[in-house]
């Protein structure tokens, strides 16, 4: 208010000056100028309101900056994790390339040895042919001598003829001994050639496996971030063909089919679908799961596990709906085959039944036979769980989310055949725990190489025709 009075005093003084100077004009107060002067200054309430608004704006900007910094830090942490994983994959790929080069060098050396052995074999065969020809000539001479002896049977044999006969016998025995030794040498050379071929075949398989492993490692980020492919859909045939579809692969085997592959089946009058039939035993089995190279990401949602995913020619999960339709036929056996990285193969069988979707596909198991430790009996009565549907008995966390893959988790148990696929033994225990598991004892967790889960009726063909061999994972 004091500041506002100063212009008023200036105006009054200006008005009084003409009067003092003797002029007759009365003093005039310019009210418009006074109002204009007052409007140049803001009211204190307006200033306070503006200050509060600026203060709130500053606080909002500070919170936004802090939140943005937190997000940037999270992004940097994820980038660091990705860089570390990518570095490990690069080191692993370089090691595989070095092993591949060494295997190629060894293969070249073995192939050269194989060529040398083939040359020796050709030489030996030519010598054997010559010896056989000489043997034939000697046999013809002996036959001639025998004819001479028969013609001289009425007379005495001279000493010269006896000596000739004895010398011929010695020559024949010597030739036969030479032939025996050569045949023995040929057999040894043949065994050596077969041994070299076996080595070459093993090396070729290792090269193929290393190439596949390298390709899989290079595709790891894509695999683990991608959605699993959809299984081969069923194409509706004619009505007559639909009515003639087998209920499962065992019925297809009984009809005379012996080739493993993809077939259409219709269990228990349900909706027909495509399935992979393994005919390598003396009875057909319907394969519901297979793992062998990590080409398919099994960390999928409930919908994927319910409908099925993967590739019938590689890795796949048939789908809970289809497995339920197979189990409702009754008297079903769950056949599990496992292989570790040392080519050790084991199997186990359970009598099993699977409830429907209303019970979240609860599994019921009774152990039958096998050389694997019985770990699935603890899972009987468990509902199926995935990362987006937690049905396990663990109170603290979701087993499917922490250990990846859908399974009949208890809390969380020592078995999960749908876990993460590792190309080799990982160092961290927590990381190994996320792999394909069938923990045999209190030893450390170990991720498996191959798995196959199949279903067949309780009573396969008679024991006289049944085979005891474990099916090959192909």
From TrEMBL:
<dbReference type="GO" id="GO:0005615">
    <property type="term" value="C:extracellular space"/>
</dbReference>
<keyword id="KW-0175">Coiled coil</keyword>
<dbReference type="GO" id="GO:0009395">
    <property type="term" value="P:phospholipid catabolic process"/>
</dbReference>
<dbReference type="GO" id="GO:0055091">
    <property type="term" value="P:phospholipid homeostasis"/>
</dbReference>
<dbReference type="InterPro" id="IPR002181">
    <property type="entry name" value="Fibrinogen_a/b/g_C_dom"/>
</dbReference>
<feature type="signal peptide">
    <location>
        <begin position="1"/>
        <end position="21"/>
    </location>
</feature>
<dbReference type="GO" id="GO:0042632">
    <property type="term" value="P:cholesterol homeostasis"/>
</dbReference>
<feature type="coiled-coil region">
    <location>
        <begin position="96"/>
        <end position="148"/>
    </location>
</feature>
<dbReference type="GO" id="GO:0070328">
    <property type="term" value="P:triglyceride homeostasis"/>
</dbReference>
<protein>
    <submittedName>
        <fullName>Angiopoietin like 3</fullName>
    </submittedName>
</protein>
<feature type="domain" description="Fibrinogen C-terminal">
    <location>
        <begin position="240"/>
        <end position="459"/>
    </location>
</feature>
<dbReference type="Pfam" id="PF00147">
    <property type="entry name" value="Fibrinogen_C"/>
</dbReference>
<keyword id="KW-0732">Signal</keyword>
<dbReference type="InterPro" id="IPR050373">
    <property type="entry name" value="Fibrinogen_C-term_domain"/>
</dbReference>
<dbReference type="InterPro" id="IPR014716">
    <property type="entry name" value="Fibrinogen_a/b/g_C_1"/>
</dbReference>
<dbReference type="InterPro" id="IPR036056">
    <property type="entry name" value="Fibrinogen-like_C"/>
</dbReference>
